[in-house]
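Pipeline run #58 for the internal structure catalog. This entry was flagged by the ingest filter as a single-chain record with no existing model, so it goes straight to prediction. Upstream metadata was stripped on purpose; only the residue string is passed forward. Reviewer on rotation: M.T. Logging verbosity set to normal.
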Amino acid sequence: MNYSQTVDYLYSRLPMFTRVGASAFKKDLDNTIALCNALDNPQNKYKTIHIGGTNGKGSTSHMLAAILQKAGYKTGLYTSPHLKDFRERIRVNGKMVSKSFVTNFVKTQKELISKIEPSFFEVTVGMAFSYFEQEKVDVAVIEVGLGGRLDSTNIIHPDLSVITNISLDHTNMLGNTFGEIAFEKAGIIKTNTPAVIGERHPETDPVFIKKAKEQHASLIFAEDDLKATNVSKKSSTLKLDIIQVDQPLLKGLHLDLTGTYQLKNILTVIEAVQQLRKIGYQIADEATYQALKNVKKLTGLQGRWQTLSKNPLVICDTGHNKAGITEVIQNINQIPYENLHMVIGMVKDKDISAVLALLPKNANYYFCQPQLERALPANELAEQAANYHLKGKTFNTVEAALANAKSKASNKDLIFVGGSTFVVAEII
């Protein structure tokens, strides 16, 4: 098989959560353990950092990987899902895994895959761990796929565990309350391993504190220790100072991820750096400054409050649940425009009502559907949206919806594209 045939095999033959939803989620680690045992447990041959949470874990993973890279560490980065190319999931110093490695891995492990019958995600985790071993990385930043306790990535023994925040998402698999979801996310906190929690919440704090105590793990809440001040925003950067216990820590930081929600993520990242330094990582302030200015260039991150074009201004964002869309709306409200055009698509297993209730009523809507089985048909989305007084037209593809929005918008208007990671993936 060539590369494209190999990826088609992975997509079509293996249960894939992004395509079919909950039926692809394996509720134990048995397959991953069996797969990695057969691969001689590559994940134990380099340092790792584990990053989970409901929102922001992707941005946090990329920022931390960029900092480690600038600090001189050969850095692996495993994230999901990808937007355009499967290989985005597996990077070393920002460079995607080679097509030949993907092809050879599947070719040599095809018998094992047939025997174990793993999911798509389980195979990609094993592939990433093996690639990082082959490339002899110093450290790998590993983003949790879904949840934490039963996520395939949770066979690593990291130097640091990071949980960005908790909100209601994937409730059909992780639980219906903040506390239940926090229990699943807390599963990445390991024995005698420091843990950083990005944001406090009265329902989740006790869960994390209890888990850390059970594991004899030190626990710190980033928002207790650090604050962002003197924040200003330009079109291409956020500028800010970070203070620690009212004392300047990092002044004049520039961040090339401009969504205001990154102000929460950056505190989590800097706290993670502080904790890594305590256990022996050599990370100079200059590495932090240089990395945060160039996260997208260093890691290939896309889709986070990303400007696609100007005149009219077109912005996309992968926020896809209540908390994520809340942040999106806050960012929209900071932009001057004459008319707002919303290109929106969603998948079936999200809390659609909670998202629709947040969307602005004084906008022109272009309801669409990404090209995957989990997609909510555009006409169904439009019907539900009408209950919230959101009106617009329906389109069978994201591309057609965006083209129509552009044809209707003036140079002083704003077009936003989102509602789902998979909507963004089709237009960047």
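catalog note: The two ends are 28 Å apart (CA to CA).
catalog note: Residues 17-24 have pLDDT under 50 and may be disordered.
status: ready for reviewer M.T.
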